[in-house]
TrEMBL record:
<keyword id="KW-0963">Cytoplasm</keyword>
<dbReference type="Pfam" id="PF14804">
    <property type="entry name" value="Jag_N"/>
</dbReference>
<dbReference type="GO" id="GO:0003677">
    <property type="term" value="F:DNA binding"/>
</dbReference>
<dbReference type="InterPro" id="IPR034079">
    <property type="entry name" value="R3H_KhpB"/>
</dbReference>
<dbReference type="GO" id="GO:0003723">
    <property type="term" value="F:RNA binding"/>
</dbReference>
<comment type="function">
    <text>A probable RNA chaperone. Forms a complex with KhpA which binds to cellular RNA and controls its expression. Plays a role in peptidoglycan (PG) homeostasis and cell length regulation.</text>
</comment>
<dbReference type="GO" id="GO:0008360">
    <property type="term" value="P:regulation of cell shape"/>
</dbReference>
<keyword id="KW-0133">Cell shape</keyword>
<dbReference type="InterPro" id="IPR039247">
    <property type="entry name" value="KhpB"/>
</dbReference>
<dbReference type="GO" id="GO:0071555">
    <property type="term" value="P:cell wall organization"/>
</dbReference>
<dbReference type="InterPro" id="IPR036867">
    <property type="entry name" value="R3H_dom_sf"/>
</dbReference>
<comment type="similarity">
    <text>Belongs to the KhpB RNA-binding protein family.</text>
</comment>
<feature type="domain" description="R3H">
    <location>
        <begin position="141"/>
        <end position="207"/>
    </location>
</feature>
<dbReference type="InterPro" id="IPR032782">
    <property type="entry name" value="KhpB_N"/>
</dbReference>
<dbReference type="GO" id="GO:0009252">
    <property type="term" value="P:peptidoglycan biosynthetic process"/>
</dbReference>
<protein>
    <recommendedName>
        <fullName>RNA-binding protein KhpB</fullName>
    </recommendedName>
</protein>
<dbReference type="InterPro" id="IPR001374">
    <property type="entry name" value="R3H_dom"/>
</dbReference>
């Protein structure tokens, strides 16, 4: 975090100089008063300038990156982190070694980290809610493509045996992919059953009217 030391005739003057040097607004800084200064005798003799240490406030992006680095370093992982923001969505992409440990079983660790990052980023309610998407080497797209293939194969199987088929338990995000993939499939419909974390998609034959 960038910090500078500034002096001025008084605290307000020192702050104004800091804002000019850093080219930021007042709500983007935090400061510590080292010396409030004094006007001296007749506002001249023995006067002392005010002295401040001024720092840029950490943004929610800075907080997210620091949190993620600390967590992953504790796992022995030093990733490359790329953060992009479009509208109200923040996408965080990770690359490096041992990335399988970050993904976890069927993405469970990745989903947990994504949830925690969302809490870190959205703890400041002065900003609009930000949707956080954490990904590792394009894992989510690859997983989505795999689930779509599973959906198609399952639909084919259900049509062939004319009987419902239950898929393995999935999280809400993955269940939505299955439902979406088969929503327009002729002769097929889907629904979810069970309680979290064992809730699963059922692919069934659509009743004839």
């Amino acid at each position: 975090m960038k910090s500078i030391e500034v002096t001025g005739k008084n605290v307000d003057d020192a702050i104004a100089k800091a804002l000019q040097k850093l080219n930021v607004a007042k709500d983007e800084i935090e400061y510590e008063v080292i010396d409030e200064g004094s006007k001296g005798l007749f506002n001249f003799i023995g006067s002392k300038p005010a002295k401040l240490v001024v720092s840029l406030k950490k943004s929610y992006i800075d907080n997210a990156k620091e949190f993620l680095v600390n967590i992953l370093n504790s796992m022995g992982i030093e990733p490359q982190i790329k953060i992009t923001e479009e509208g109200n969505t923040i996408k965080i992409d990770l690359e490096g070694i041992k990335m399988g440990n970050v993904i976890g079983y069927r993405g469970e660790t990745l989903d947990s980290l994504q949830y925690l990052l969302s809490l870190v980023i959205n703890k400041n309610h002065e900003i609009p809610y930000k949707r956080v998407v954490l990904d590792v080497e394009n894992y989510r797209l690859k997983r989505e493509e795999t689930l779509k293939r599973v959906a198609e194969k399952t639909a084919y199987k259900v049509k062939k045996i004319s009987r419902a088929y239950k898929l393995e338990p999935m999280n809400p995000y993955e269940r939505r992919i299955i439902h979406s993939a088969l929503q327009d499939k002729e002769g097929i419909f889907t629904y979810s059953e069970g309680e979290e974390p064992y809730r699963r998609v059922v692919v069934d034959i659509k009743p004839k009217k």
